[in-house]
């Protein structure tokens, strides 16, 4: 009887324990399911909140861009022309000193243009002229040859006319006359070049003078202010540098024109020498055939 009661008690305890364990497991599973559901709901709410925030941020940014677009439209920057920039720098470099540099440049260019025009008009086809003179001289038409020289411009034709005007004299006299007249024509070609060289030397010298005066102004400003800050020195240094730059630019421009003029003078001088030698040979042949 006691054993039966013990077995019943043990069986009841085991069944009760199993029921309690099963109910606890069910409760735990329900709790986990509930937690997962809540977490999923929280995640969904968080995603929805994030999407809502992103959409609102995009809307705010679009509104901001839409509101700022009329104001943020940049006006096109007007391009500054070269002459305007040159004028501004000219004024910044102190008009007093820059006027002297500009005057030297203008006067130098005036002499250069005058020489270029004169030398361009003095250039001719020397070989064709000498061929025409040879045909007429060998035919004995000296006056016709002189007329050709008179109607042709330039120092080459003038030298040939000078030689033909003394064709009846000796060859030494003719050569001496051509040489002397050639010296005069060469001097006419170089007329005014000394002024060009003067302005070439003056332009940078005036620029350096402005540099020295600008430095003096800078030191005077330092002395008055009792300080050596860059803002005090900037004005005098700017005047000094700009005048130097413009003086060098003016000298370079005049130097280019001067070298071009010298090349044309050398070309015409070589034509004169070659034509003088050819004329003497033609005259010699003419005298031998008479």
Give a written overview of the molecule.
There is one protein chain. With 290 residues, the protein is mainly alpha-helical. The protein has 9 helices and no strands. Helix 4 packs antiparallel against helix 5.
Q: What does the overall shape look like?
A: rod-shaped
Q: What about the largest sheet?
A: none
Helix vs. strand class:
mainly alpha
Helix content: over 70%
Q: Give the helices and strands as they follow along the chain.
A: HHHHHHHHH
Number of strands: 0
Short description:
By secondary structure, this protein is mainly α. Helices cover 88% and strands 0% of the residues.
Provide key terms for this protein.
mainly alpha; 290 residues
Question: Helices and strands in order, then pairings?
Answer:
Elements: H1 2-72, H2 82-92, H3 95-122, H4 126-138, H5 142-151, H6 155-164, H7 171-189, H8 193-225, H9 230-289
Helix pairs in contact: 3-8, 3-9, 4-5, 4-9, 5-6, 6-7, 6-9, 7-9, 8-9
């Amino acid at each position: 009887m006691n054993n039966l009661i013990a077995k019943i008690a043990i069986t009841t305890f085991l069944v009760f324990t199993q029921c309690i364990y099963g109910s606890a497991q069910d409760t735990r599973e329900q709790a986990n399911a509930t937690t997962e559901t809540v977490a999923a709901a929280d995640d969904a709410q968080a995603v929805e909140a994030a999407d809502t925030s992103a959409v609102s941020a995009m809307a705010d940014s679009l509104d901001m861009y839409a509101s700022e677009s009329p104001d943020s439209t940049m006006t096109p920057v007007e391009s500054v022309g070269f002459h305007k920039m040159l004028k501004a720098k000219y004024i910044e470099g102190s008009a007093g000193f820059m006027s002297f540099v500009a005057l030297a440049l203008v006067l130098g260019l005036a002499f250069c243009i005058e020489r270029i025009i004169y030398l361009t008009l003095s250039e001719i086809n020397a070989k064709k002229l000498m061929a025409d003179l040879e045909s007429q001289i060998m035919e004995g038409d000296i006056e016709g040859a002189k007329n050709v020289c008179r109607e042709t411009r330039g120092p080459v034709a003038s030298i040939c006319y000078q030689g033909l005007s003394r064709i009846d004299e000796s060859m030494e006299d003719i050569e001496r006359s051509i040489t002397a007249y050639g010296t005069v024509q060469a001097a006419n070609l170089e007329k005014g070049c000394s002024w060009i060289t003067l302005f070439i030397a003056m332009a940078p010298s005036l620029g350096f003078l402005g540099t020295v005066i600008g430095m003096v102004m800078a030191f005077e400003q330092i002395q008055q202010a009792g300080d050596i800050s860059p803002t005090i020195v900037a004005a005098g240094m700017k005047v000094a540098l700009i005048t130097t730059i413009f003086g060098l630019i003016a000298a370079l421009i005049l130097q280019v024109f001067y070298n071009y003029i010298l090349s044309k003078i050398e070309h015409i001088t070589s034509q004169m020498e070659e034509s003088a030698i050819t004329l003497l040979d033609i005259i010699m042949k003419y005298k031998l055939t008479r």
